[in-house]
C-alpha cells in the first residue's frame, strides 16, 4: 500500500458520526403556535435547543411552551404578528442571543390567477416573502453581534415548498412566493458563508397539518395530490422536523445554499 493510500485509509477509519444535536443552541421558530412550526419547535427542544417561539396568538404559543417545558426543555414566548416588521425586529433584537432561525410562518390561498384579489396578493407577499426577509435580516444582525460567532456559526432555515421548485395549477401566487424564498436562500447563503452562517430551505410536499386539511378538502383534490407523490402518502410532521433538526445541527456543517426537498418524489418526475 502506498503512503497516500495508507493515509486515506487511516483518515477514513478515524471518522466519527457527527452529532445530530442542538445542545447549547438558541433557536427561534416563527409561526409556531400550531402545526408544522409547533412541531419543529418541540423537535428542536427535544434535540437540546433552548427555543423561542413567535406567532400572533399567545394562547397557542403557551400550549406549545407548556409541552416543551413538560419535557424538560426551555421555551420563550413572543406574541407578535410577523407582518409587523417593527414588532418582529424588536422581538428578535430582544433575544439574549440567537443561533438558529426557522422562518416557518406562511399561508396559501389556492385559486386561479383570474380570481386572485389584491388582498390575497398583498397578504401572501407580506407573510410568505417580506416577513421571511425581515426575520432573516434581524436574525443576522443578532448573530453577528455575538462574540462567539466565529466559533459557533449560525443557521437560517427558510420553510419553502416543493412548489418553490415546480409549478402547479391554481398556485401561481404561492409558487411565486416560494420561488422567491428559494432565490433568497441561495443569495443569503453565499453572502453569509464567510461569517460562518449557513442558510438553507426545506421544501416539503403536502404535510398532514390543519392548514393542508383545509386546502385539501375534497376527494378530487386529494386524488390530484396522491397521484403525484410516488411514495403514495402525505408527509408527516416528523419528516419535516427531522429535516430541520439535521440542517440546524453540526451534522450539516458543510450544507448551505441548498434546499432539502422532502416531497416523496414529487419533483423527481
Structural summary, described in words:
- This protein has one domain: NAD(P)-binding Rossmann-like Domain (Rossmann fold, 3-Layer(aba) Sandwich).
- Helix content is about 45%, strand content about 15%.
- The protein has ten helices and seven strands.
- A seven-stranded parallel β-sheet has the order 3-2-1-4-5-6-7, sandwiched between helices.
- Helix 3 (about 60-70) links the parallel strand 2 and strand 3.
Kindly provide the radius of gyration, computed on alpha-carbon positions and rounded to a whole number of angstroms.
Answer: 19 Å
Largest sheet at a glance? 7 strands, parallel
CATH-level-2 architecture: 3-Layer(aba) Sandwich
The N- and C-terminal alpha carbons lie at a distance of 45 Å
Overall 3D form: globular
- Annotation field: number of helices: 10
Determine the structural class based on helices, strands and strand pairing: alpha/beta
Helix content: 40-55%
Please write the string of helix (H) and strand (E) elements: HEHEHEHEHHEHEHHHE
Helix-strand layout with pairing:
Layout: H1 3-13, E1 26-30, H2 35-46, E2 50-55, H3 58-70, E3 75-79, H4 85-93, E4 100-103, H5 118-144, H6 149-152, E5 154-159, H7 172-192, E6 197-204, H8 210-215, H9 219-226, H10 237-248, E7 259-262
Parallel strand pairs: 1-2, 1-4, 2-3, 4-5, 5-6, 6-7
Helix pairs in contact: 2-3, 2-10, 4-5, 5-7
Features:
269 residues, 10 helices, Rossmann fold, single chain, alpha/beta, seven-stranded parallel sheet
Give a short overview:
It contains 10 helices and 7 strands. By secondary structure, it is α/β, with parallel strands linked by helices.
Amino acid at each position: 500500500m502506498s503512503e497516500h493510500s495508507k493515509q486515506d485509509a487511516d483518515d477514513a477509519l478515524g471518522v466519527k458520526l457527527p452529532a445530530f444535536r442542538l445542545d447549547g443552541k438558541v433557536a427561534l421558530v416563527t409561526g409556531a403556535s400550531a402545526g408544522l412550526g409547533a412541531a419543529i419547535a418541540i423537535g428542536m427542544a427535544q434535540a437540546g435547543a433552548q427555543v423561542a417561539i413567535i406567532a400572533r396568538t399567545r394562547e397557542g404559543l403557551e400550549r406549545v411552551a407548556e409541552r416543551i417545558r413538560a419535557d424538560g426543555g426551555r421555551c420563550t414566548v413572543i406574541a407578535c404578528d410577523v407582518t409587523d416588521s417593527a414588532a418582529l425586529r424588536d422581538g428578535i433584537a430582544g433575544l439574549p442571543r440567537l443561533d438558529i432561525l426557522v422562518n416557518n410562518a406562511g399561508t396559501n390561498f389556492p385559486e386561479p390567477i383570474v380570481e386572485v384579489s389584491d388582498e390575497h396578493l398583498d397578504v401572501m407577499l407580506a407573510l410568505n416573502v417580506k416577513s421571511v426577509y425581515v426575520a432573516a435580516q434581524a436574525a443576522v444582525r443578532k448573530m453577528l453581534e455575538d462574540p462567539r460567532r466565529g466559533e459557533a456559526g449560525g443557521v437560517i432555515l427558510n420553510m419553502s415548498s416543493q412548489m418553490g421548485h415546480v409549478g402547479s395549477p391554481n398556485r401561481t401566487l404561492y409558487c411565486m412566493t416560494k420561488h422567491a424564498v428559494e432565490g433568497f436562500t441561495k443569495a443569503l447563503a453565499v453572502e453569509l458563508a464567510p461569517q460562518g452562517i449557513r442558510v438553507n430551505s426545506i421544501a416539503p410536499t403536502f404535510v398532514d397539518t390543519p392548514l393542508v386539511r383545509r386546502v385539501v378538502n375534497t376527494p378530487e383534490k386529494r386524488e390530484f395530490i396522491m397521484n403525484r407523490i410516488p411514495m403514495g402518502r402525505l408527509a408527516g410532521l416528523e419528516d419535516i422536523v427531522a429535516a430541520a433538526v439535521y440542517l440546524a445541527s453540526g451534522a450539516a456543517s458543510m450544507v448551505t445554499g441548498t434546499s432539502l426537498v422532502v416531497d416523496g418524489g414529487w419533483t423527481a418526475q
